[in-house]
Amino acid sequence: MRVLILSDIHSNLEAFQSILYDADSKGGFDEIWSLGDLVGYGPDPSECIKLIRQYKGKSVAGNHDLAAVGELELEAFNPYAKAAIEWTTSRLNKDEKAFLKNLPLTLEVEDFTVVHGSPRDPIWEYLVTPQSAAANFNHFSTLRCLVGHSHIPFICRPKHETAVFHDFPLDEPLNLGSERLIINPGGVGQPRDGDPRTNYMIYQSKDAIISHHRVEYDIPKTQKKMADRGLPKYLVDRLAHGR
Ligand code: ZN
């Protein structure tokens, strides 16, 4: 089986479509695993929900998904995120809200635990420091764990009492072997590692091989939609910088 792994689509239809097109051109995929935050920030929440539901696959909930359906306090978000969530809530129909509300916080699929933030705090924790990574290796029982939330792609390995983060080389198939790993595919709809291109991974289950890919997409088109819909300028601008 070939799996398209992605995270943090954030209502960015152009980025999501570019990934689907690119993944198709690289041999296709059988299903999608989404690591949360389908909505929030971007201009096309309903369209992104509709599109992902056309594919076989599995999704977990992210903090923006739950906030958009009233399951989390908006006070926990910064003013830009909060404004985008309020706008998102106003756009979603009943069926789309029910879909987001019913997403699980954690899934175990094959050798992976799948969460949005971290295995010990699936909603809020940003797994970005060696300390937090090392602690989190004790919070899942599968061989590997997939996380999103920080919008930064990495592979993380445990090392003695701590953990080491590695860059995820592009377009190079990596054999995962039998190591314990925490992997982040990076963000689809709002990359934050200084590279504005969108991110995804392909996992081939037969040989346990994973590859990381980045694609350009029509950023000005997404930005124009955001501006037309009155979403905060700060969120519009940051798409071009990937920060
Ligand atoms: Zn996110």
3D architecture notes:
The structure is a single chain. The chain has helices at about 15-25, 45-50, 65-70, 80-90, 95-100, 130-135, 220-230, 235-240; strands at about 1-5, 30-35, 55-60, 105-110, 110-115, 145, 155-160, 160-165, 175, 180-185, 200-205, 210-215. The chain is of the alpha/beta class and about 240 residues long. It has one domain: 4-Layer Sandwich (Purple Acid Phosphatase, chain A, domain 2), CATH 3.60.21.10. The strands form 2 sheets. The chain has a 6-stranded mixed beta sheet with strand order 3-2-1-11-12-9. A hairpin with a 2-residue loop joins strand 4 (about 105-110) and strand 5 (about 110-115). The longest helix is centred in the first third of the chain and has 13 residues, at about 15-25. It is globular. The mean pLDDT is about 95. Bound molecules: zinc ion. Zinc ion binds near residues 10 and 37.
Topology, pairings included?
Layout: E1 2-6, H1 13-25, E2 31-34, H2 45-52, E3 57-59, H3 63-68, H4 79-91, H5 94-101, E4 106-109, E5 112-115, H6 130-136, E6 144-146, E7 154-159, E8 162-166, E9 174-175, E10 181-184, E11 198-204, E12 209-215, H7 219-228, H8 233-241
Parallel strand pairs: 1-2, 2-3, 5-6, 6-10
Antiparallel strand pairs: 1-11, 4-5, 7-8, 7-10, 9-12, 11-12
Helix pairs in contact: 7-8
Bound molecules: zinc ion.
Zinc ion binds next to loops.
